[in-house]
Amino acid sequence: MKSAHNMHAGRIGLIVVLIALISTILAPNASAAPSYASGTVQCASGNEVAGVWVAAKNGGSNWAKVTKTRGLASHARFEYKLPKGGQYLVNVGCGWKNKSLWDHTKVWKTTNRSVIYVSGARNFLCYDVKAYIPKNLSNSVYQTCIV
To answer: Hey, which residues does 80 pair with through a beta bridge?
Structure first.
């Protein structure tokens, strides 16, 4: 017959094992391998691609390296190393405008966002001006980037 002390110790051991197992399952994968977010972005209106911010799902968001297409300011390639791998969204600036009449600091005319997380190399078309949205799409795609 088991003593009360041995049964209590056994239960504690089982609880410790269960906590360790649950922690392992629920903990984010800290050792995820880096991967790349890359591809092309295009501002549908013909406005210049002003910049690309990569929002990493696993953390490590930052500015992408942008290489403009020669002779076509509205098209550019982007690349960013996702330090923790995984999926990403893009925020694409299309066009420039002055921040105010007195301040000659330039800001993006529009910030256009992708709406689904993707991975790897993708090509995005950003609807930065309503007049350039095709008739078969609704205005809900305004300021979004479609893969």
So the answer is: 37
| 145, 90 contact by CB (below 8 A) | yes
Looking at per-residue confidence, does 30 or 90 come out higher?
Answer: 90
Q: Is the pTM of the predicted complex or chain greater than 0.85?
A: no
pLDDT of residue 100: 72
Is the pLDDT at 17 greater than 70? The verdict is no
Q: What would the mean pLDDT of 26-50 be, rounded to a whole number?
A: 85
Burial class from Cβ neighbours inside 10 Å (0-12, 13-18, 19+) for residue 47 reads: buried
Q: What are the angstrom distances between the C-alpha of 126 and each of 55, 74, 144?
A: 16, 10, 6
Contacts of 54 by beta carbon, 8 Å cutoff, 6+ apart: 37, 61, 62, 63, 64, 78, 80, 82, 88, 89, 90
